[in-house]
Design brief:
The strands form ten sheets. Strands 14, 15, 16, 17 and 18 form a five-stranded antiparallel sheet that branches. A five-stranded mixed sheet has the order 19-20-21-22-26, with no helix packed on it. It has a five-stranded mixed sheet with strand order 28-29-30-31-35, with no helix packed on it. The chain has three domains: about 160 residues, no CATH class; about 120 residues, Thrombin, subunit H, CATH 2.40.10; about 210 residues, no CATH class. By secondary structure, the protein is mainly beta. A hairpin with a 2-residue loop joins strand 21 and strand 22. It has two helices and 39 strands. The N and C termini lie far apart (about 45 Å). The radius of gyration is 22 Å and the shape is globular. The structure holds 2-acetamido-2-deoxy-beta-D-glucopyranose (8 copies). The site of one 2-acetamido-2-deoxy-beta-D-glucopyranose (NAG) has 4 residues, from loops. Keywords: Signal. This is Pyrrolo-quinoline quinone.
Length: about 550
Amino acid sequence: MRDLHRFLALLFSACHLAYQVSSAASDSPRDADIAQSGYVGGDHSIDPEAASRFQHLWNITFKPDEKHYARPLVHTLSSSKQIIFTASTENIVRTIDASTGEILYERQVAPPWPMAEASCEMTSKNIGIIGTPVIYPEYDVAFFFVKSYIEDFRVPGGAAPPLNAVYYFYAVYLDGLGDVYKYPLFIDDVPADNDLRKIFLGGLVLQRPSLLAIGDVVYAGFGGLCDAFNYTGTVVAININTRWINRWVTQGGAGSAWTSDWTKWHGGGAGGIWQSGMGLASDGQDVYLSIDKGGISTDVNASSTPVSSKTHQDILSRSVLRINLNDSGVQMQDFFLPFDYQSNFGKGIGSGGVSVLDPSVFNSSTARIGITTSRNSKMYVLNLDDLGGYRTGVNGTDAVLQTIDLQGEVFGGIGSYPFEGGYVYVNPGNASLAAYYWNFPSSTPQLHSSASLFSIAGTSPATNPHRDGVGIPTVTSNNGEPGSGIVWVTDVDKGLLAYKAVPVDGALLQIGLPKVEGAVRFGRPVFGDGKVYVVDGKYRLVALGVGGNGTVAAR
Ligand SMILES: *[C@@H]1O[C@H](CO)[C@@H](O)[C@H](O)[C@H]1NC(C)=O
Ligand SMILES: *[C@@H]1O[C@H](CO)[C@@H](O)[C@H](O)[C@H]1NC(C)=O
Ligand SMILES: *[C@@H]1O[C@H](CO)[C@@H](O)[C@H](O)[C@H]1NC(C)=O
Ligand SMILES: *[C@@H]1O[C@H](CO)[C@@H](O)[C@H](O)[C@H]1NC(C)=O
Ligand SMILES: *[C@@H]1O[C@H](CO)[C@@H](O)[C@H](O)[C@H]1NC(C)=O
Ligand SMILES: *[C@@H]1O[C@H](CO)[C@@H](O)[C@H](O)[C@H]1NC(C)=O
Ligand SMILES: *[C@@H]1O[C@H](CO)[C@@H](O)[C@H](O)[C@H]1NC(C)=O
Ligand SMILES: *[C@@H]1O[C@H](CO)[C@@H](O)[C@H](O)[C@H]1NC(C)=O
């Protein structure tokens, strides 16, 4: 069956997407950057002086039940018009004129799944598109996962039973929002490459992390739906030209949990991939992600024996992972499980993503550097080529490059600024936004176990809301020109906040912005040409920038 699938995929691969336009430097074709370093480049023509003159340019009110958890993206069409692409829980996608806020096209691609039977508290009536799409600028096409349903598909009861919900992978042209030939793809019922028993059941999982595109492959992470039901965390990797679907589960193999009862809590082993919506990260080749709680391999469970980072694990949870895709499917390459994972049940790695830092600044003679965050109020500095395994550090502790204790839990990841010496920013709940300085700016630093690669450089005066009211730091600059860096964060109460990226005397200095009324949870602003776009606490899309005088009627 799968061979037939592959044969047909190859047969039709002649129908390649046509190369059309290239991207403008000020576009935002994905959530932040591929590396999830949180530095989004220097071509947005925004510096602290410009930001301090920002005004409200326009805002859009959507339909009452519509929520935009997916971040807007920015793209320049071949006509040179810069547009914004949005996708909502109602499965409505839109293109919007970035200058005026005028809605150009609007389309409901499929009905969203009514989630009442999920008995789970999520603040939208229906579930549709949740994960942030990704744009291939060269094709003028956006890709995204759509949750919908087929009435009576697996069980009687119409649309409502979770077993009748399904996922599709859509590709739409940004000029007009029409479907790309041979799309959408049906994802349901695809077995996992590493466990044929584990069938994709769209109603039991949620596509939350932003999509990652590397070459022809789009990667998506799936976790549980409010952690209910029988589910298994999964990565779906789709070649957009051959339409070949690879699927890998975090809990695979004979020893992993499987059940014939779909309602059973963690029945498939769980190990979801959610990252508070942050995207999977890449160095351009391999993919880095974190896995939430779930079953765990017997060689690490209740054992204090060290396990090296390259030892294959069938059953993974509360871990940071490096994977890659070859002809045999997705392969685990490297992992890190904190030595104290059992003492913080429910507060492990999994809420935060992984950031691959710019290796031309944050490097050592021995390591490329990544950072992951956690709900256990820690930030781990990792060697990206040897994530640490389990208890391989001194005296059975973590073999990470540095563990930084924070003042609160972190949802989502960090931001970074690869200029003026190098900084990273973390935004814990019930604490302040904090900046850490890179201590090894020389070209040949040596890493050793007692090294403090990063040290605290400054904090914001304001304290964040508790826990999940925080957003993920995102950094802009004028190509690293000293003094031009800005770190942006959202806050469910205070809206959009901006600070000068380089702290002064231990303080992050705030830049005054027009008030935005709150923000979506785990939010992140998106940048265009001289403008910033953000989803506010009432799920409106708000544009700030210099000058301009238009507002757009609610619709
Ligand atoms: C439980 O979930 C797995 C995927 O993790 C799936 O293969 C299996 O069919 C599910 N069982 C039921 C009864 O839904
Ligand atoms: C670890 O092993 C214990 C005892 O064998 C078992 O009860 C527990 O469920 C396991 N933990 C996980 C996370 O799989
Ligand atoms: C794919 O990667 C795995 C693990 O690294 C390796 O064992 C396998 O030989 C590779 N397969 C191919 C076809 O390259
Ligand atoms: C490592 O970082 C330093 C600055 O911290 C930079 O000067 C050097 O070029 C970098 N090395 C590499 C190999 O990128
Ligand atoms: C490791 O444990 C030994 C014995 O408890 C202790 O003497 C030593 O200081 C520890 N080393 C480190 C680096 O913590
Ligand atoms: C928030 O932090 C303060 C200390 O700064 C602490 O007293 C308080 O208990 C924390 N609140 C919550 C809800 O964790
Ligand atoms: C203000 O609006 C008018 C009418 O829509 C337009 O012609 C003008 O260019 C706008 N000015 C700015 C600064 O955007
Ligand atoms: C949104 O736009 C309306 C006009 O459509 C305007 O009255 C309102 O002040 C704007 N709200 C914000 C927060 O900018």
